[in-house]
């Protein structure tokens, strides 16, 4: 999925108040300078290009080295500047991935426009999280089917009780077969969620199991909420600012008129 490109390159997560001041004669020069700064991990250069507070928007674990390496590989594969008037974008790789930070031309020259980039970065992050939530729901269906093959019943819990296998996930020792589902659905830190989403098992009288997923922070980690059952069809709905309350109030799988089927 293209939206996963540079997933953790939160290097570009900059504040609306952070403005990069270093101008360049051409957008190509600016793009070259940014790529060189990333490749050399030159924090001083990045401060000049992106603003001094860019690092505070990194995730706790820092920049994903694989994401950076992927960007640099795509840059070497091919890169170009797409310019429309006084705005330009850097496009890299065979798939044409576009850097979310535009370049704008001012009196002093071309510079990276952090203020405009913020909305695009947020939109892409939400898109990635929503796609990850849909993939996780499909993984849940697969896990329930494997669990049923093992125990002739569906699991009613995501994480098993300690010492039992009454949920889809349980820790295993070396050499043992893995549980049907990994531990990611239930992170160690409460409230964190998985890719910005919470998940909860729902009963479904027709197919035996279902699940609902909703964003940890509506409008920031996601917008749409999702439901799935044993048919493996995903339904989505925008539950609005009260998403958490509305999603947690859902007690059974029964998509009504506000839910729409997600195209496969």
Count structural domains.
Answer: 2
Q: What is the overall shape?
A: elongated
Please state roughly what percent of the residues sit in beta strands, choosing from under 5%, 5-15%, 15-25%, 25-35%, 35-45% or over 45%.
15-25%
Q: What is the straight-line distance between the termini?
A: 14 Å
Helix content: 25-40%
Radius of gyration: 22 Å
Order of helices and strands: HHHEEEEEHEEEEHE
Q: What's the tally of helices?
A: 5
Oligomer: single chain
Mean pLDDT, nearest integer?
86
- Show unreliable segments: 1-20, 57-61
Secondary structure: number of strands: 10
The largest β sheet comes out as: 5 strands, antiparallel
**SS-based structural class?**
alpha+beta
How would you summarize what this structure contains?
It contains 5 helices and 10 strands, in the order αααβββββαββββαβ.
Question: Can you describe what's shown?
Answer:
The strands form two sheets. Strands 1, 2, 3, 4 and 5 form a five-stranded antiparallel sheet that branches. The protein starts with 26 loop residues before the first helix and ends with a strand. The chain is built from five helices and ten strands. It has two domains: 2-112, no CATH class; 129-261. The longest helix has 38 residues, at 114-151. A hairpin with a 4-residue loop joins strand 2 and strand 3 (97-98). Residues 1-20 and 57-61 have low confidence and may be disordered. It has helices spanning 27-40, 43-50, 65-77, 114-151, 243-249; strands at residues 79-84, 87-92, 97-98, 103-106, 109-112, 197-202, 210-215, 225-229, 234-237, 260-261. The protein is of the alpha+beta class.
